[in-house]
Amino acid sequence: MPAKPFFYCPRLLLSFELPPNPLSVFAFSGLKSKPAPIDLRRPGSGLQTSHNLIIFAGNIFSMQIENGKTAKLIYRLTTVKDDKLIEEVTEEKPAAFQFGKGLLLPVFEENLQGLKAEEGFDFTLKAEDAYGPVDPYAIFDIPKDTFEVDGKLDEKMLQVGNRIPMTDNQGNKHLGKIIKVLDDAVTMDFNHPLAGKDLRFRGKVLEVVS
To answer: How does DSSP assign the chain, residue by residue?
Structure first.
């Protein structure tokens, strides 16, 4: 197999990759792994019920979201400006988030700290606290021959709106969106898809576990 083609620009040295599967563009979506099962039914440790209540010597309490805990959530993620739906997570397939691990946006964690099962939430993340402003230096032209495979160019792939995974010279992955097609190049935007957008999260906590 021939080596991946590279091109040079002042900001990035990128190579084109054909993705084996569709890529999720939302950071949150990549955190939907199921937490390991937890057995609290050993002697002396209490009993975990279906409502996430733990009984200790007659005292009943419900776990709350805090560092070291994993919470299952359902939510709607929309843009504040036009209420455009970005992502919706339902009870059929809730999202699991680990708190205090540095995996989530700090402001996202702060807005959910202290919540318990069955409690709802509704909060807004400003662009500067979410995915930052749009960076004009992350938008630039890439020669079309960068995308050739075995000397051939797939023109159907180089269409406005298509997102194409790239790799820089340090092995870092970047997902770029084609925003313009020129005669011998394409203009690509490597900003996060949600850069420059204020976001609104509305949803409910289903479960909190250790």
So the answer is: -PPPPEEE-SS-EEEE---SSPPP--GGGGG-PPPPP----STTS--B-TTSEEEETTEEEE-B--TT-EEEEEEEEEETTT--EEEEE-TTS-EEEESSSS-S-HHHHHHHTT-BTT-EEEEEE-GGGTT-S--GGGEEEEEGGGG-BTTB--TTTS-TT-EEEEEETTS-EEEEEEEEE-SSEEEEE-S-TTTT--EEEEEEEEEEE-
pTM above 0.85, yes or no: no
Find the domain containing 33 and state its range: 27-131+196-209
Q: Residue 170 pLDDT more than 90?
A: no
What is the CATH number for 166?
2.40.10
